[in-house]
Design brief:
The chain has 3 helices and 16 strands. The chain is mainly beta. It folds into 2 domains: 88 residues, Translation factors (Elongation Factor Tu (Ef-tu), domain 3, Beta Barrel), CATH 2.40.30; 145 residues, Rossmann fold (3-Layer(aba) Sandwich), CATH 3.40.50.80. A 7-stranded antiparallel beta sheet has the order 4-3-7-1-2-6-5, with helices on one face. Helix 3 links the parallel strand 12 and strand 13. It is globular, with a radius of gyration of 17 Å.
Length: 248
């Protein structure tokens, strides 16, 4: 996987729209690059908070980058308030993403909630793969329409039963029919996916979701446990081989 140069970019907001309760799609104009699974640090304010917020790449097109994000704190709340034409600062691409060249055959993409965000770009970039998407949500689904041109099928679950299977996506996903599994979502969900993949001897790659501060591996806020010791999610990940992770 090619290492990409980290850039500091002043972008211009093309659109920033709420697509469901607490979930926004932000499109920024500018020249961007990045591998699936990588992220940018975004900052749309001058003073506090001190640091930007890590947001994974949802899609990159000609002179635009798209982010799908959830408002859950002060930084993302400020980010949700920017409008078309506003300036925004971006640093990236950061982290290690999915090694697309190693992912072949029949592939399952398993996501939970906002974990669906980085997987669109992964699905778009995968070649010579047959892809099924499994996506779990609490109440409302989002971000799925764009997958239809890249995947063979979409299985959905909602905890309230409003759409698809009533319950959790791990209740309808089984790794036995797949060569590889890509996963992103809540830690408890990813732990279940990694466990069943390990038991089935199926290779899994997970994009870890951890609270991050610096985004470049200096502060050690976002460490996760692996069989080779603690690793920095932002610098060594966020994508890890599932069998390398220490899970409960």
């Amino acid at each position: 996987m090619k290492k990409l140069k980290i850039d500091y970019i002043d972008g211009i907001v093309y659109e920033n729209v709420q697509i469901t309760d607490g979930i926004y799609r932000l499109v920024v104009k500018g020249n961007f690059n990045g591998n699936p699974g990588q992220f940018y640090m975004l900052r749309s304010w001058e003073n506090e908070p001190l640091l930007g917020r890590p947001i994974s790449i949802n899609e990159i097109s000609e002179e635009k980058i798209t982010f799908l994000y959830q408002v859950y704190g002060e930084g993302t709340k400020l980010l949700s308030e920017v409008t078309e034409g506003n300036k925004i600062q971006l640093m990236g691409p950061l982290g290690n993403g999915f090694d697309i060249e190693k992912i072949k055959g029949k592939v399952a993409i398993v996501t939970g909630g906002i974990g669906v965000a980085p997987m669109l770009y992964a699905a778009e970039r995968l070649e010579d793969c047959e892809i099924d998407l499994y996506a779990g949500f609490r109440e409302e689904t989002y971000g799925l329409q764009e997958f239809k041109k890249y995947v063979k099928s979409i299985q959905v679950s909602t905890e309230n039963g409003k759409e698809g299977h009533r319950g959790y996506i791990t209740e309808v996903f089984s790794p036995g029919n797949y060569d590889m599994v890509l996963c992103c979502g809540p830690e408890i969900m990813m732990n279940k996916v990694v466990k069943v993949c390990n038991e089935a001897n199926v290779t899994s790659y997970v994009s870890m979701e951890k609270h991050m501060a610096c985004g470049i591996g200096a502060c050690l806020v976002c460490t996760c446990k692996t069989r080779n010791g603690n690793k920095r999610t932002c610098k060594d990940g966020p994508v890890f081989l599932g069998s390398d992770l220490e899970i409960d």
